[in-house]
Design goal:
This protein is about 30% helix and about 30% strand. With about 300 residues, the protein is an alpha+beta fold. It folds into 3 domains: about 15-95, no CATH class; about 105-205, no CATH class; about 225-310, no CATH class. The chain has a 6-stranded antiparallel beta sheet, sandwiched between helices. Strands 1, 2, 3 and 4 form a 4-stranded antiparallel beta sheet that branches. The chain has a 4-stranded mixed beta sheet with strand order 11-12-14-15.
């Protein structure tokens, strides 16, 4: 992926029109991108995006022969255009392309096409007419996968959550696991029905685990540069009593930025480990301090809670 504003990009907006496309993004997508750019000293090149609903947004790209280039606010300024103009041009550039065929799993429709996933968020009419029970419910777990179910189809929505759980384990760039639904002219957040909640909870735990894993090397580089030395513990996902449980660790004497998890293994200097529900750590005043701007959230442990190991 090339840096926005590179010489690969056409010098004018008119020359770029046919190469424009639109892609879905989420809070995690943008945070990973921000971390990478900050480590390169190019934070100003962060992609410009249009919010959709919840943490979903879309951003314009230039699909060049040798690279897919995200567009920054600086690049739009060079061309003398606004974000709505670029997004409209990206949608128009996709006209005439065949609409990808959807795979059907039970009552859920799966579209696997990056351009279509982004365009459908901007142009809901692309999915409004699909045969689903109730209003269309959309989930975009990765950049090239768009799932569509029905708001009045709880059984179908359980399949949707289970399919998303499988899709996010691919190497594809993650987007969001927050479903949205069509209400009137646009998208709004959608709450999982009770029947799908166990599968949605399992999806959330796996998503957070994979998200933390993607962030971890970037955060480690950050703390190595800015100091002081700070550990970035892993988070694991385990099966217990038929449910999924997330576990991380905090070691005595080691400053750490913790992921949110169900359990924290408190490791003493001598090596003894005590598993403690994270809610118990959160209940200790001043022990865990939120790290701003992290998604999924992280907290800084101000000390080792030795009293919870007794």
């Amino acid at each position: 992926m090339q840096t926005p504003g590179s010489p690969h990009l056409p010098p004018t907006f008119d020359l770029a029109r046919e190469q424009l496309s639109v892609r879905p993004m989420g809070a995690l997508t943008l945070q990973l991108r921000h971390f990478r750019l900050a480590l390169q000293g190019a934070a100003a090149a962060l992609d410009v995006v249009q919010p959709i609903a919840a943490d979903l947004c879309v951003g314009p790209y230039a699909d060049l022969p040798d690279a897919d280039v995200p567009l920054s606010a600086d690049q739009l300024a060079r061309w003398g255009v606004t974000l709505p103009q670029v997004l409209d041009a990206a949608v128009v550039a996709g006209f005439g392309r065949p609409v990808p065929a959807a795979q059907r799993v039970e009552s859920v429709h799966l579209f696997q096409d990056v351009r279509f996933a982004g365009t459908a968020l901007l142009r809901p009419e692309l999915v409004r007419g699909l045969p689903v029970d109730g209003d269309p419910v959309v989930l975009v777990p990765t950049v090239g996968d768009l799932l569509v179910g029905g708001s009045q189809d709880p059984v179908g929505l359980t399949f949707l959550a289970r399919m998303a759980d499988r899709l996010i384990q691919s190497p594809a760039l993650p987007v969001s696991i927050q479903p949205v639904t069509l209400r009137g002219p646009g998208w709004v957040s959608f709450a999982w029905p009770e029947a799908a909640q166990p599968f949605a909870d399992a999806l959330r735990r796996r998503w957070d685990t994979l998200s933390y894993a993607r962030q971890r090397p970037l955060l480690q580089q950050h703390y190595e540069r800015v100091g002081p030395p700070t550990a970035v513990p892993e988070v694991g996902l385990y099966e217990r009593d038929g449910a999924t449980v997330t576990v991380t660790s905090l070691t005595e004497g080691v400053p750490a930025v913790l992921p949110m998890a169900d359990l924290v293994s408190l490791v003493r200097t001598a090596g003894a480990a005590t598993p403690v529900p994270m809610d118990r750590l959160r209940a200790v005043p001043g022990l865990l301090v939120p790290v701003p701007g992290t998604a999924p959230p992280r907290v800084y442990a101000t000390r080792f809670p030795i009293e919870l190991t007794r």
